[in-house]
DNA sequence: CGGGATGATTTGGGATACCATGGGGCCTTA
DNA sequence: TAAGGCCCCATGGTATCCCAAATCATCCCG
């Protein structure tokens, strides 16, 4: 398994360190990236994190824009300019910078959420709320699908 | 990591010296350039800086314009003509020239912002404002991309 | 089916190294 | 000789490393 799956909640210690969940560390190790690449999500109050896979996604996105264009500069600023490459200690922990914690509203606990090629870092309460809302959206979508197609519910 | 990522704010001392953030120094060292190449940004009240990678980007840009054209001369003047190659002292500090500081509105602090192959130098308050604007622009850009492609959000 | 027991993982803390910053003084240059 | 640039060393604060304790999960045996 080479992608981030499931979610884990860990606490920050007095020095602000958090353990990256072991399953996620395994994915990162296979990815081959030294450290943890983290940046604020563009539209959620959460952090996106990952390794080379995430980096190359960002690179690809930047390459679609012409050099020296405003769009590209803006994107580089909004992504690379506010990113951090966090060092991982020998126990698999990282320390989030102040600005990252502020952005995500993190204080003493964080929830790591698998997203396939990347992972997200949430303040636990916010993640619960986000999850509830996402489920509601999905239920709504499912209901609409069931109305247009005349198939029976898939449970 | 071979690109400029994240941002750091450092202060100028009484002699006008600023430390280049250590992670950026590491990138410059790998790039192999002696010193720090700096020029005013073409359209922002900030400075662009870097090493050989930035230099070769500029070269490539100039080559796209026909030799002896007014455009090329103008661009060469605006980039190369106002560039400085700053010496880096043994502690990794540089001294910005008066004209560079004036252009960027720098007084006693600067923010170094990673942009991948190059970095930018900002007066901290101006950078905050610029970042807000860049994020807004990117959100808009992302919305457009999501409409054209039917892929899932990249966050 | 319950109770340990074993190994992995997370959490904690002290020591250490690195880095941003400040200042002295020499040496060049005008 | 005065000014400025440059090199070197000193210091405080912070991040990193290494070792130890506690927590948790899994597996095995009774």
From TrEMBL, chains A, B:
**Which GO cellular component does the record give, naming just one?**
cytoplasm
- Give the record's keywords alphabetically: Cytoplasm, DNA-binding, Repeat, Transcription, Transcription regulation
Q: State where the protein is found.
A: Cytoplasm, Nucleoid
Q: Does the keyword Transcription apply?
A: yes
- Which SUPFAM superfamilies does this UniProt record tie to the protein? AbrB/MazE/MraZ-like
The entry's family comment says:
Belongs to the MraZ family.
Q: Does the keyword Transcription apply?
A: yes
Gene symbol?
Answer: mraZ
Q: Where is the SpoVT-AbrB domain?
A: 7-60, 83-126
Q: Where are the transmembrane segments?
A: none
* UniProt name for this protein: Transcriptional regulator MraZ
One example of the protein's molecular function in GO is: transcription cis-regulatory region binding
Q: Which domain of life is it from?
A: Bacteria
Pfam families per the record?
Answer: MraZ
Name its GO BP terms in alphabetical order: negative regulation of DNA-templated transcription initiation
| PROSITE patterns (UniProt xref) | SPOVT_ABRB
* Gene3D superfamilies registered for this protein in UniProt: Transcriptional regulator MraZ domain
Q: How does it assemble?
A: Forms oligomers.
